[in-house]
Amino acid sequence: MIFRHVFAHSLKCRITVVTLGVFLLSLWSLAFFASAMLRTDMKRVLGDAQFTTVSMVAAQVNAALESRLAALNAYVAVRMTADMVAAPAAMQARLEGSPILPAQFNGGIFVTDASGTAIAAVPIEIKRVGVNYMENDSVAAALSGRYSSVSQPVVGKVLHTPVVSMAVPIRDANGKVMGALVGVTDLSKPNFLDPLTHASYGGTGGYDLVEVSQRLIIIATDKSRIMEHLPAL
Predict the structure, then answer these.
(1) CA distances for 224 relative to 113, 165, 192, 219, 229, angstroms
(2) How confident is the model at residue 4 (pLDDT cuts 50, 70, 90)?
(3) pTM tops 0.90, yes or no
(4) Helix (H, G, I), strand (E, B) or coil at 20
């Protein structure tokens, strides 16, 4: 009788322990699964929110660049002729008499001939006339007749500060490219891209605009990061 009682008591204890173990294991498994699901959902929600925010900022950047390229193209179409490229004095007078366009480019504007050499520029205190800009990718693209474009960020040959250039071709009546009109944005000074990076992201975050091929930061909430190369992937 004593043996049966002890055995029955021992069996009940084992069943209780096993049942409790299974319950705890199930509870821990459920908690782990729920935590993993919650983490995945949070990453997805945060990723979607960040993508939406970045898409809005990217659209603003694109609109700002397109509006300035459109202004350069409109200026060439309305205010310039191919004959003026052969008359630097007339081209200089035309640029100096048009204050609205330079106001959109804090680094000034200039005109090159077909070889990429500047023949007229404003403001005149930035000594660009006579300097060749053929190595600038946007100038080269415009003079090749391919398209109007925005350059990669570089250190300006005259300003010696980080700049981005926009260039559009100047054509004659037959469509031959005779020169280029170039607008320059000095990234070291207040410029049209600044409002995009003034806002913070969250409590401590910010924005970087990166040129993908060079992994080069063009503008950033933290100004000290401008022209910084990101590490390799």
Answers:
(1) 36, 21, 18, 9, 12
(2) low
(3) no
(4) helix
